[in-house]
Amino acid sequence: MAEFMLLERNNLILGRMLKLDKITKYYETTESNIRRLVLDELSLEITKGDRIAILGPSGSGKSTLLNVMSSLDLPNSGTVKFDDEEISSYNSNQLAQFRNKKIGFVFQAHHLLPQLSLLENVLLPYLPEKDRAVKKEAEKRALHLLDFVGLSNQIHQRPGQMSGGECQRAAVVRALIHEPKLLLADEPTGSLDKASADQLAKLFVRINEEQGVTMVVVTHSQDLAEHMKRICRIENGKIKE
Ligand SMILES: Nc1ncnc2c1ncn2[C@@H]1O[C@H](COP(=O)(O)OP(=O)(O)OP(=O)(O)O)[C@@H](O)[C@H]1O
Ligand SMILES: [Mg+2]
């Protein structure tokens, strides 16, 4: 008991951010009626400031795990706690709010809109915003972040006029524009050459160290994984560190 309390206290001091406890996730295929177990009582704790790589073969459940972390997908059983609040019990409004406020997502395909400029793409989440002061602040942040990732000379260019690496960095800026606590990236270097992948890996390190953003990065790249502080592997639905 004393040991348990000490552990709990250490977690508070270290600042636990996300705790996945015995997460089980399966998919039912309608044609064959077979259940495909993807996450099997998987447990994982992420502390504030962590920088984690998730590795694992194709189909092992990496994207599924990120989706559960961000509440885009709900587990069949187990609990997800963020800042010690159980998000698995939120209703859909609360979940949407949670994601908008706390999570930044970088997808493998950058999903930038071709008809918008770089700056407009980054500010897209603020398009419906009515408050002009809030909009102005967001624009200031966007310009600062675009400068941080080395894209300040291209803010009026469209994605079609940018390289793959530049688009990927732009997607990172868009994921950071609302100042999320946790950045989740799904194979962000998947389509990049070695030099651009290396540049993006270094950028992740700086975002973590200088902006204090906690991050989980799914990757097939050993190079990118080596830039992270922790390396986790998914095997048979469970995490191995
Ligand atoms: N919506 C779904 N319905 C049914 N099965 C699914 C669904 N999404 C994923 N799966 C299955 O769950 C397993 C894990 O998928 P997931 O996308 O998490 O793998 P992954 O590790 O991200 O793979 P990759 O490296 O190829 O991206 C796969 O076998 C996949 O076919
Ligand atoms: Mg995937």
TrEMBL record:
CDD domains (UniProt xref): ABC_MJ0796_LolCDE_FtsE
Annotated Gene Ontology cellular component terms: membrane protein complex
Keywords: ATP-binding, Nucleotide-binding, Translocase, Transport
Gene Ontology molecular function: ATP binding; ATP hydrolysis activity; transmembrane transporter activity
Superkingdom, taxonomy of origin: Bacteria
Keyword Transport set for record: yes
Location of the ABC transporter domain: 18-241
Family: Belongs to the ABC transporter superfamily. Macrolide exporter (TC 3.A.1.122) family.
Protein name per the record: ABC transporter ATP-binding protein
Source organism of this protein record: Ancylomarina salipaludis
